[in-house]
Amino acid sequence: NYYPGPGNYGVKGNPYTKLEEKTCSRSHSEAHPCRTTHRTPPMAHQGSGLAPGTYSFKSGIEAYLAKSMGTRGFYDTFSGDRSKPQPYGHFSVQKRKPRELMNFTSFVEELNSRHNKKRGVFSKISRNLETPTERIYWATLSQCPRKLVSVPPPSMTLL
Question: Are 143 and 137 in contact, with CB atoms under 8 Å apart?
């Protein structure tokens, strides 16, 4: 398959470099350009550059301490005033934003609001109505029968 699938970005973001390396490694014709032919010959061995006395070995403990120590030092959590809260770490105190005073409504304003307007007020509707005032009772004819005047005669319903 000459076309690589999605997500195969290859070396330096070019998906075709891997395919070109595969074609160059096989036996191929002279017409196919190959990247391996354009490589420069390797440089001659020049040595490691370490002369006697220019390096020093560290013991295992020194290497461990150098690796384990952070940039802030060994006793980072205890450096500074202990009476102040810790600025970072597991036991640090979260920084809270200063809160502004909220606008609370007073009891009288809440009592006179439009939501509480009808609360505690007696209803002006009579108690025993012929038709119920709430919509839930209008669901069936047994709950709220129609008046005979409002029902049209059967001859008009056929039209």
Answer: yes
Q: Kindly state the DSSP code that residue 64 receives in the 8-state scheme.
A: H
- 120: tokens are 């505690």
Q: What is the rounded CA–CA span in Å between residue 84 and residue 100? A: 25
pLDDT in tens, 66-118: 776 556 655 555 556 777 777 777 878 777 777 766 677 889 998 889 888 88
**66 CB-near residues (< 8 Å, 6+ apart):** 58
Instruction: Tell me the residue ranges of DSSP E strands in the chain.
Output: none
Q: What is the spatial distance between Cα 49 and Cα 51, in angstroms, rounded to a whole number?
A: 6
Residue type, 119: R
Q: CA–CA separation, 59 vs 57, rounded Å?
A: 7
For 20-63, the pLDDT digits (tens) are 887 776 655 555 555 555 567 667 767 776 777 777 778 888 88
Task: Classify residue 37 by its DSSP letter.
Answer: G
Exposed (0-12), middle (13-18) or buried (19+): which is 16, by Cβ within 10 Å? middle
The count of other CB atoms within 10 Å of the CB of residue 17 is 15
Is the CB of residue 140 less than 8 Å from the CB of residue 132?
A: no
